[in-house]
Amino acid sequence: MTAHEPPRTVAAYLAALKNALKGAPAAVIRDALSDAEEYLRNEIAQNPDKTEAEILAAAIETYGTPEEIAEEYRTMEETLAGPFPKAEETTENRPTGFFGVIADPRAYGALVYMLLSLATGVFYFSWTVTGLSLTLGMLILIIGIPIALLFVGSVRVLALIEGRIVEGLLGVRMPRRLPPANAGEETVWARVKAALADVRTWSSMFYLVLMLPLGIAYFTIAVTMLSLSVGATGGAIYELATGTDVIRMDGVPWWDHVFDTAPGLIGLAIAGVLLLFVTLHVAKVVGWIHGRIAEILLVRI
């Protein structure tokens, strides 16, 4: 196919579309390829009496050329608002620097994600390990084939759900639909082999298993830092207001001389507030890192 020759096969159309979308977010490319492939495969299935080249020529007239579709997706991405303001929109009327993080919605989204990650990590890990063990154990039997298909399908659904959580809380563009099924594979066994050969299957499984240690780490960091911040500030203010000794550090002889005084308690309250800002900054960093991990493992072009 030359630069100006229209694609005559589905594979050529998808390759041209991918090339036209070069530089766009990987999830945008994935969604565009999935939509185009599903549309073209449906056209082929509905017109069995025509050649693939004839169907492609007609489909381009109604669906659009790869370049036209790429431009539509780019325009749509620029038009649709994401869960968070764009970087250029956040610097004008918003404080920046260390204390500016208090007004950054990305920090709160990342903090919520860290608190949720333990529950999601335990569920993802349990589902993946149990399903993989059951599938491998039953694959030698006839019943193992539909079980394998169901398990692979469930992994892709969980990856899609996790992607929606990542996009909603971390602001990282993720795929918004499942990849189309391979309509060219006619037998169930062929579909199982195709699913097992698809790198997306294994990268998604790895991500779901990886979420357990990551979830434990994220949850521990978030809870520990929030507890220290709220505990120090709230305890110091309560002790100043009531005179009740609620903040103790047994075994530290200098504690009472420093922090059991009014100046010490005021300093402790200020330190707790500063720790809250540090917590939000840490959450933003964790959110950015995890967003890159999710992009690498869950978005396959």
Textual characterization of the structure:
- With 301 residues, the protein is mainly alpha-helical.
- The protein folds into two domains: 1-80, no CATH class; 92-301, no CATH class.
- It contains ten helices and no strands.
- It has helices spanning 10-20, 26-46, 52-63, 66-79, 105-138, 144-170, 188-197, 199-242, 255-259, 262-298.
- α5 packs antiparallel against α6.
- The longest helix is centred in the C-terminal third of the chain and has 44 residues, at 199-242.
- The radius of gyration is 26 Å and the shape is elongated.
Key features of this structure:
301 residues, mainly alpha, 2 domains
Q: How are the elements arranged and paired?
A:
Elements lengths: L9 H11 L5 H21 L5 H12 L2 H14 L25 H34 L5 H27 L17 H10 L1 H44 L12 H5 L2 H37 L3
Helix pairs in contact: 1-2, 1-4, 2-3, 5-6, 5-8, 5-10, 6-7, 6-8, 6-10, 8-10
